[in-house]
Give the backbone structure.
Amino acid sequence: MGSDQGGERKDSFARSVTRGVLRPIAASAAAGATAYLTRKSTEVLRDKVARKVREKGGPAAVAKEAADKVSERLSGRPAEALSALRDRLGRATPAPKQQTSTPARSVAAKPNAERERQRRERQKRREEREKALEHARPT
């Protein structure tokens, strides 16, 4: 009986060590996969979907086309509501692009100023944490 318990302990220890090693690796893999998929999905959306939407005449035209296809399969009140939506979409025109009157230099300077402010705030918090750690350390 004693040898069976020793074997069980070794198995239990091996499992716990394996879990301890594999969990961080699995977490890193999951984080990496999530970042990759997020980046790729953004690229696909920008390169493929946005291009198709522009080719079809913009978001309103795509929505109208989708509403047309769905309305073919509906009847009654839902069909009437969808018909009203299609009419509104048909009247929608894309908004003209606004011209900015501010020079490009001031537009670029604003985000840089904001980034610099955020950098200073992070540095200040870092210094506060370091001071708190110094006071908390036993001498």
